[in-house]
Amino acid sequence: KAGVTQTPRYLIKTRGQQVTLSCSPISGHRSVSWYQQTPGQGLQFLFEYFSETQRNKGNFPGRFSGRQFSNSRSEMNVSTLELGDSALYLCASSAGTGAAETQYFGPGTRLLVL
Amino acid sequence: AQSVTQLDSQVPVFEEAPVELRCNYSSSVSVYLFWYVQYPNQGLQLLLKYLSGSTLVKGINGFEAEFNKSQTSFHLRKPSVHISDTAEYFCAVSSLSGGYNKLIFGAGTRLAVHP
Known about the structure:
By secondary structure, chain A is mainly β. Chain A is built from no helices and 11 strands.
């Protein structure tokens, strides 16, 4: 069974640009969650999508948005990039139907904002 | 609100020695508890989780953790570490009310195993 895949793996952008990151969950999983990992703030929850609906969200500004498609693939978008958005962005997938399930993480997309 | 404190940012240890990585949490509701490991340039891998039941949880790679409700702790242990255990370890919590897939992570503990 293929794992969670994230594309691209590395990205360099400049301030003010926008970026879209993609996450393909494990086949059959309907929940996709996104996290930001930085040296200063650690791992922080961005949002979770389940069956194309945002089910939960963290405390990030509206510049961070996401969506989920009918095949459960998810994208997150960051508009008007700031230097502080440089981070490793991780997505995790699970079946999404119960607390006993394991969330499986992808390798992440490393974003550098110059 | 929930929070997680990992009491050691770095833990050096010799190969084949035992290790304990400490984690305390704060929550006003019942929580689910997790330990994840992150190897360099990789995502997170679940080591073990506590949902309910027995307070001693066994995970992969010989790791185990004990849930202590009175001390609000969930310390990770391994009786004999290997060089390959060198990685960063994260303790995390979630709850039914906060969203069981919304993980709140600690700052991480870097385990360095020396020969």
